[in-house]
Structure formats: C-alpha cells, structure tokens
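Ribosome assembly RNA-binding protein YhbY, Aliibacillus thermotolerans. Tokens?
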Amino acid sequence: MLTNKQKRFLRKEAHRLKPVVQVGKSGVNENVIQTTKEAIEARELIKVNVLQNCLERKEDVAHTLAENIKAEIVQVIGNIIILYKESKENKQIELPQ
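Tokens:
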C-alpha cells in the first residue's frame, strides 16, 4: 500500500510519461492484461489511456488491471490511469519513506 507521500512522488514522476497501453471498445481482455504486465515490469510506472469508445467505467478498468497484474493505482484522472508496481529485475524508482 502506497502512502500519500509516495503517491505524490509517483504522480510527479508520471507527469512526463506518455501512455503505453490503450484500452478500447473491447475493454480489459487478456491481451490488454498481458501488454500491461510486460510494460509495468519493464518500467515500474506506466500510464494507461482509456479510449472514449470504451464501454467500461475508468475506475472499473483501473481496478481490474491493478487486480490482475497486482499493481497499485496511483491516480485516475480524466481518461488516464497511472499504475505502479515494483519491478523484480529492473528496479528504477526509489520511493520516499
């Protein structure tokens, strides 16, 4: 569980990032989950773009993705979801205590 201080730090770090995963009309499926797993293992902090034609609510997409890849939701703002998961092999981000 991330503290508020850690979430603030991660939001600041994510500000410069571009979305690497897009969730479209078909919603969260196995392909989206697998792509998200690979991206978050490589980068630790990612943005997910929920397209306007997605039939699911953004909050539901965020919770489904976070649950399936065992990541933390940093923020859901507009159509963007920010997810964080500490990488096992490729640790890049040092969280404040």
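The mean pLDDT is 94.
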